[in-house]
Inverse folding.
């Protein structure tokens, strides 16, 4: 079995007296396509926010590519290989499509010391950590000078970034929108642009927060195919939050169901759909009636 | 908002692109220097305009590109002015024997500017590191507080001449020097805007949470933008100190900070060319109104003085009018060549 890329162990988070997420467990490996569902306010987006470092967990551990990330900031966690999209689209609205993607394309330029060596240096005590910080800062300032002086290396890098961003736009079939401001794109394309932007950070695990919200049936069908294709093309592990049951049941191999922060069920779409607790909490009795009990569904029914 | 990196110097060999604009600017400015040498009032006015342009363009890096609201720019200017002024006073009598006196003086002047700029940049770092975790109004209050603290410190320090200020700073500033720094500031601002660093700043302005989630170290970027911005504010202060006969705390009050903010907002938050045009316009406007009114009154001093008093209300009225007609500022986030009508010969977009 391939290595676990994203691992949440007994993660809980509490806001004052409210337990927004309790004892949440999750494992994502390369090639996984898992789903996270639950009624409104169940803690799905909170789970995303904890995993990506927006909130620090109150207890439990999170590992990204075997590195413990509790208390790390979102940008550090992102650099380790975890990218996300947002439920309410958060594009850089006034930037063009290509620039949205280019922001997320971090150059492979490693400068004086490679990130790996910095990381090993950091493990060797406080002094070594300080030296590592100084090396990194020196590198950063060198990087600014390269931009100010337009060194040939810098220009090459910019070209490389632009090329990669164009590639990603074309993967998401957005090439025709290259120079349009993100806010002027139609809704479905904004969602796709968000995915392109997330992919630009070279993630190993991608978290999609309601990628199909506001899409019509056809767009949803296309999206299902696209998500699968992305997983294979970029060798990703993917976790999807989605309200559209057809989409979730259609593409996810494993589904975790949250309610009031608790994990109430986990398993294949079949198992989850027939789980008593899930039906009560989320799908509702009418779902069972409408779909003739345990038959496979053909309609979306949140 | 476009940050496309298509340099106007695209036709040049890569190696030369970096320094090409500087190599052009130096002889052009030197030539202008020869022309305007004896026009004292013009040089004085041009120097004030230049200092304001540097202030506006550098503040635009923080307020416009990064979207942080700083209103303490006069504080950084004061640091630069006093430190470089003090430095010049100390080395006033020193001269490098290998060089002619004028050249040696100019070299010392550049050194003083760098010292002043660096001192301001260090202040920017110290203020920025803790306070850039704050947002919006809170950051504005901290930067405002910083500006006032600097002013009060200067006012109560014997070495800085207290409320009387520093006088006797060698008047080494020239038209060339001021406008060379204007040029450098603009060049740096444009090159940042067109680079990956600039894109990160734009991203922070647009959506900090998303920028952070896309791997942008938002705190570090904000601090760096702040440091660069305060460096140039310090240089502007240094230049100022070397062409006005006396610098006192009165020149670096809250009002000065607001003046610079007004220039940036009027030009369009995020537009470098907008900041330049607004700075030039708003600096010259009071002067222009003064001479207009003097001319209207037919040279009679009494009437001229009376009319002179409505100069500032007109200035204010024009600002109100601008904000009513174009709330996003002159150019919004765009540059002048994005806004000019298509039939005008357009400059290619990108970094100079």
């Amino acid at each position: 079995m391939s290595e676990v890329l994203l691992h949440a162990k007994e993660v809980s988070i509490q806001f004052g007296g409210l337990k927004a997420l309790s004892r949440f467990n999750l494992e994502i490996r390369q090639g996984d396509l898992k789903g996270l569902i639950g009624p409104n306010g169940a803690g799905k987006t909170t789970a995303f926010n904890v995993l990506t470092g927006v909130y620090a967990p109150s207890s439990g551990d999170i590992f990204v590519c075997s590195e413990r990330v509790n208390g790390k900031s979102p940008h550090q966690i992102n650099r380790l290989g975890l990218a996300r999209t947002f439920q309410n689209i958060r594009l850089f609205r006034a930037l063009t499509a290509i620039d949205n993607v280019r922001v997320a394309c971090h150059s492979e330029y490693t400068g004086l010391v490679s990130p790996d060596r910095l990381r090993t240096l950091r493990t060797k005590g406080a002094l070594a950590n300080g030296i590592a910080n100084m090396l990194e800062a020196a590198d950063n300032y060198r990087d600014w000078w390269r931009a100010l002086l337009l060194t040939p290396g810098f220009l090459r890098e910019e070209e490389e970034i632009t090329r990669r961003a164009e590639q990603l736009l074309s993967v998401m079939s957005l090439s025709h929108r290259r120079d349009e401001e993100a806010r002027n794109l139609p809704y479905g394309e904004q969602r796709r642009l968000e995915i392109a932007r997330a992919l630009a950070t070279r993630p190993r695990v991608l978290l999609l927060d309601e990628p199909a919200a506001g899409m019509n049936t056809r767009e949803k069908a296309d999206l299902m195919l696209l998500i699968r294709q992305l997983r294979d093309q970029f060798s990703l592990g993917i976790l999807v939050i989605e309200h559209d049951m057809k989409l979730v049941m259609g593409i996810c191999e494993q589904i975790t169901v949250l309610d009031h922060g608790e994990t109430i069920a986990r398993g294949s779409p079949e198992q989850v759909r027939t789980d008593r607790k899930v039906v009560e909490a989320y799908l509702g009795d009418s779902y069972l009636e409408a779909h003739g009990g345990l038959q496979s569904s053909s309609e979306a029914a949140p | 908002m476009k940050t496309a990196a298509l340099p106007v110097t695209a036709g040049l060999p890569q190696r030369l692109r970096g320094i090409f604009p500087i190599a052009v600017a130096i002889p052009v400015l030197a030539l202008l220097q020869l022309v305007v040498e004896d026009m004292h009032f013009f040089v004085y006015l041009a120097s004030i305009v230049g200092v304001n342009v540097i202030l506006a363009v550098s503040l635009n890096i923080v307020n416009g590109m990064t979207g942080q609201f700083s209103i303490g720019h006069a504080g950084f200017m004061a640091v630069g002015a006093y430190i470089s002024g003090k430095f010049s006073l100390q080395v006033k009598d020193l001269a490098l024997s290998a060089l002619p006196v004028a050249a040696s003086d100019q070299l010392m002047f550049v050194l003083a500017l760098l010292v002043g700029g660096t001192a301001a940049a260090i202040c920017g770092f110290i203020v920025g590191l803790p306070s850039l975790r704050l947002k919006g109004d809170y950051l504005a209050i901290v930067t405002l507080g910083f500006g006032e603290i600097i002013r009060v410190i200067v006012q109560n320090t014997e070495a800085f001449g207290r409320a009387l200020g520093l006088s006797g700073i060698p008047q080494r500033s020239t038209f060339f020097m001021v406008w060379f720094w204007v040029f450098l500031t603009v060049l740096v601002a444009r090159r940042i805007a067109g680079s990956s660093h600039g894109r990160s700043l734009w991203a922070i302005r647009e959506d900090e949470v998303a920028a952070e989630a896309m791997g942008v170290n938002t705190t570090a970027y904000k601090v760096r933008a702040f440091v660069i911005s305060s460096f140039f504010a310090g240089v502007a202060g240094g230049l100022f100190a070397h062409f006005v006969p006396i610098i006192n705390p009165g020149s670096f009050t809250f009002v000065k900070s607001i003046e610079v903010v007004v220039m940036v907002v009027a030009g369009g938050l995020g537009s470098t060319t907008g900041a330049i045009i607004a700075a030039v316009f708003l600096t010259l406007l009071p002067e222009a109104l003064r001479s207009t009114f003097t001319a209207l009154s037919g040279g009679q001093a009494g009437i001229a003085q009376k009319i002179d008093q409505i100069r500032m209300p007109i200035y204010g009225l024009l600002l109100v009018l601008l904000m009513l007609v174009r709330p996003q500022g002159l150019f919004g986030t765009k540059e002048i060549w994005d806004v000019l009508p298509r039939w005008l010969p357009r400059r290619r977009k990108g970094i100079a």
